[in-house]
Amino acid sequence: MKIGELARRSACPVETIRYYEHSGLLPPPERLSNNYRAYTESHAERLLFIRHCRALDMTLDEIRLLLDFRDHPERDCIGVNALLDKHIGHVVERIAALSALEALLKDLRSQCLATDSTSTCKILQALGADPCASFPPAAFTG
């Protein structure tokens, strides 16, 4: 199949498919005599696997490792479990960071309950102040 058909079947943009090829997640397809890429069913299956991993918010490096395990079915799955455990830990950390962000935003929102002019808006004043004075350092990651 051509890249357009693979894109339609997988609901994945052509640019993303090319990116996955370039990054080594999808093997390069054979080229037809007219230089078109010729994708196979194995490309579609691999792309589905990649997209499922991305839906679980896995990084490309994590996906690369999982694909390596998938490509070597004789291996022990302890590494797969370890990767998932590590990913779960990252998700827990992100949830905690997002919960802290939510609390900060709610606190910020609570500073302005009126519909006065923006010149006296406590939210705008707080956003213009030194962030370290208004918010704990853990709220800033970069």
Automatic annotation (TrEMBL):
<feature type="domain" description="HTH merR-type">
    <location>
        <begin position="1"/>
        <end position="69"/>
    </location>
</feature>
<dbReference type="InterPro" id="IPR009061">
    <property type="entry name" value="DNA-bd_dom_put_sf"/>
</dbReference>
<dbReference type="InterPro" id="IPR011791">
    <property type="entry name" value="CadR-PbrR"/>
</dbReference>
<dbReference type="Pfam" id="PF13411">
    <property type="entry name" value="MerR_1"/>
</dbReference>
<protein>
    <submittedName>
        <fullName>Cd(II)/Pb(II)-responsive transcriptional regulator</fullName>
    </submittedName>
</protein>
<keyword id="KW-0238">DNA-binding</keyword>
<dbReference type="InterPro" id="IPR047057">
    <property type="entry name" value="MerR_fam"/>
</dbReference>
<dbReference type="InterPro" id="IPR000551">
    <property type="entry name" value="MerR-type_HTH_dom"/>
</dbReference>
